[in-house]
Write a structure and sequence with these properties.
- The longest helix is centred in the last third of the chain and has 15 residues, at 247-261.
- Strands 1, 2, 3, 4, 5, 6, 7 and 8 form an 8-stranded mixed beta sheet that branches.
- With 301 residues, the chain is α/β, with parallel strands linked by helices.
- Helix 8 packs across helix 12.
- It has 13 helices and 8 strands.
- Helix 7 (132-140) links the parallel strand 4 and strand 5 (143-154).
- The protein starts with a helix and ends in an 8-residue tail after the last helix.
- It has a domain at 3-156 and 184-219 and 275-286: Vaccinia Virus protein VP39 (Rossmann fold).
- S-adenosylmethionine binds at residues 11, 15, 56-60, 62-63, 80-83, 86, 108-110, 123-125, 128-129.
């Protein structure tokens, strides 16, 4: 198995296992924490009524439902995710909010046959491909004439204290760990703008525009410091680090996280800086033009 295939297999088992289940359990909280990001992505992507949207890594569907509302009944959203548990949660939320123009599909965005889109978007769902150039090349093939891409991805760990502060608090309780490879598939894969540009241009997209999005995220979701501590132990690296640790190590780590988060308490919120890229690009080759040249059926806009 190639390294890329092994990464994809790990992602399948993580997002269909512990990662997906934890995300579902924490979904109501995470949606509140990430609401400013979902709003910024919607403004950046600017979907229009009637458009066909492809949402990659839709998860439990928070931003998907935003896009579905804006494109309206004359438009549609194809929401892709590899995670069965997260899609099940998304489907049940859709029924509650009365949106009916989303097709939720469990599939790998890097390889699945898709339908044509005007807008490719993603909230934190494009950084996990084992072979990102192949994945973005594949996604480009379904772009309509005039299609655009708009997605959000994290900048570096150092620029994201909302996740770095709990990690630093926990680290002294555990043995030293090797630092990850730069640009490795995962949460911070697209932190480096040069790497994002290299991947996208190699995959036939135009040089992307990266706009910094900086905001304070309320990791307590308005529910106080104890909830912020719980959230910090349930997501990202801290969750994986503590998962199999004995109770005494976990308790000591939780106490340290509590102490580290105290300076950020703001009423019932706990607000820490977060840093992201809003990335936009358009296909530069091999999409609509190539398909017409190859005499494939073309629906256009
Ligand atoms: C960090 S979560 C973001 C979920 C959601 N967009 C949100 O912001 O609430 C990343 C999502 O990408 C999905 N994902 C990872 N690799 C994928 C792939 N190759 N194809 C489709 N979805 C993928 C995961 O299953 C997960 O739901």
């Amino acid at each position: 198995m190639s390294e890329a295939d092994a990464i994809d297999a790990d992602m399948q088992s993580f997002w269909n296992g512990v990662g997906g289940n934890t995300w579902v359990a924490r979904q109501a909280h995470t949606d509140i924490t990430l609401r400013p990001v979902a709003d910024a992505l919607l403004a950046h992507a600017a979907p229009r009524p009637g458009e066909s949207v492809l949402d990659v890594g839709c998860g439990c569907g928070a931003s998907t439902l935003d896009f579905a509302r804006v494109v309206g009944p004359s438009g549609s959203v194809l929401a892709l995710d590899i995670s069965g548990p997260m899609l099940a949660e998304a489907r049940s939320r859709e029924r509650k909010v009365g949106v009916s123009n989303v097709e939720w599909r469990q599939a790998d965005a890097a390889t699945a046959p898709l339908r044509d889109y005007n807008l490719l978007t993603s909230m934190f769902g494009l950084m996990f491909f084992g072979n990102p150039v192949a994945a973005f090349t594949h996604l480009r093939q379904f772009a309509r004439i005039g299609a655009r891409m708009s997605f959000v991805a994290w900048r570096s760990l150092a620029e994201n204290p909302w996740i770095g502060v709990p990690m630093e608090a926990v680290a002294p309780h555990l043995p030293a760990r090797p630092t990850g490879k730069p640009n490795a598939p995962g949460m911070f894969a697209f932190a480096d703008p040069g790497y994002v540009e290299a991947v996208l241009t190699a995959a036939g997209w135009s040089p992307p525009k990266l706009e910094a999005l900086d905001c304070a995220l309320d990791i307590a979701a308005g529910r106080g410091i104890d909830e912020a501590v719980t959230q910090s132990t349930q997501i990202g690296a801290v969750y994986s680090w503590l998962r199999n640790e004995p109770d005494e190590t976990r308790s000591a780590a939780v106490e340290s996280i509590h102490k580290a988060l105290m300076p950020y308490v703001d009423g019932n919120g706990v607000r820490l800086p977060a840093a992201m890229w809003l990335v936009s690009s358009t296909p530069s080759c091999g999409s609509s033009a190539a398909r017409r040249r190859d005499n494939l059926v073309w629906r256009g806009d």
